[in-house]
Structure formats: structure tokens, C-alpha cells
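Appendix B. One record, verbatim.
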Amino acid sequence: MKKLAVLGHPIGHTLSPVMHNASIKALGLAGEYEYDKLDVAPDQLMARLAQLPAEGYAGVNLTIPLKEVAFQGLEKLDTSAQTLGAVNTVEFTAEGMIGHNTDGYGFLKALEEAFGKATKDDNVFVLGCGGAGRATALMAALNGAQSITLADVDAARVQNLSAEIGRVAPDVAIFQCLEKPAQIKLCREADLVIQASPVGMKKEDPSLLLSEAFRAGQRAFDLIYMYPETAFLSTAKAAGAQVANGLGMLLHQGAKAFNIWTQIEPDISAMRLALEKAVYS
């Protein structure tokens, strides 16, 4: 039996085992693979990763707050991880561990699926510039966005990400946005609005932006996937925007990771059905 898992701290909220085990079952591989979840603190991550191959693990996913830790700790990094400065997928090979990042792929695939396009020629507004915001802003810039507006309360975080985007995509216009009135104005002007902060992970969390920040013709994408519609998405939809949650991103980053570990194409339909059942029923 080859084992797979997602590691995080905490890890209770994850739906990765639900979708991966559904695919494994649909492919008739239930006797060969299984996918579970492991709670691993950041200071224990590198030691724990080193132990896993001997325990039968073929690979793992990483979630909050481990992606940057692995990026700093792993010697071998795929181009995807180098580009995004974070690791969400670790492949165990005979030559050692290799860090990958499938979040960027999943993000673009989810946008195309939900809205019919990704980020080309868009003015993109990114709310929250931590690890998730960083990855999505970089992918948007590298995939044809016209401009990126970075909104956060942490000025240093915004400045660092601005500099990073400037290095990898110098032709993309970058705007920094720290104050709420400016955020409302620039969000309303954007074609694509990405909610990448952790606000919304609790069901009672309010939207960080009110209805005047949105308009008809916009696309609003929330990386949070545990609920059909966060307050952010409900607010955007009421103002006329098209909306999508992060379920598609979770699906497609997971499918890509499974293929990296196994060289087998997963059953994406089974994965999607399992996720939709977990979130929508």
C-alpha cells in the first residue's frame, strides 16, 4: 500500500482526503493507494518529511502554514515552486525529495472553468497578500494580467510582493492599496477580484469589502472553499458580479499533485462529485 497525505497545522478543515480517496476508489486503486491527513507543526516539518518515505508514503501535499517552510528547507525545487516561492506538493523519489507547487496551475484552471478565461488583459485586484495572495498575484502577472492591485493592511507585505512581481513580470502595472477607501475604488475598477485572505474561513466572518466595491461585469473569486458562498461572494454577487469559490482550485491542484506522485491521471469527475457533496449537501 502506497500512502499519500496532506500535512498542515491545524488540519481538521481539509477536504483533500475526501476528493483523493474518491478518485482512488473510482480508479480501482483502493488496494494500492490511500490518502490521509497529518497534523505537523512548522518546526517539525522537515524532520517529519524525512521520515515519511520509510513509512510507505509516495508523496504529500502541504497546506497552511507549511508551504514556505518547505520552500526554505528542501534542496530540490521544481520550477513551479521556485516561481511561487512556496511548496504545496512534495514528491518522494529515489534521489530524494522534490518540492512542487500545483496551486498556480489549479488557480488558472479554476478561473477558466468558472468564468471562461483566466487573467489575460485583466486588471486584477488581490485582497490579502500572504502566501495564497502571493501565489495568485504572481500567476496572474505571469499569465497576461494588465495590472495587479495589491490590497492588505501590512505595508511591508505589499511592498515585498510588489517588488517580486516587478522582477518576474516587469511589464505589469502594480498598484499598492492599504486604506479602505482606496481599496473600494480600485476593487470596483477591477475586472477580476481575488479574495486571498483567511477571512471567511469561519462561517460568521463578514466580507472585508462592502457592496460598493463591486459592480456588474466583474468576476469575483474567493480561494476559500469550505462553504458554497462566503460573505465576500454573496456581497459581490448581489452587486452583479459573477462569483466562484475555491473548490475548483482545490480540485485541480490536487489532480495535478496526484499525477506527479503516481504518473496516473486521476478521476476528476469523482473528485469533483466528492467535493460538491461535502460542501453543498
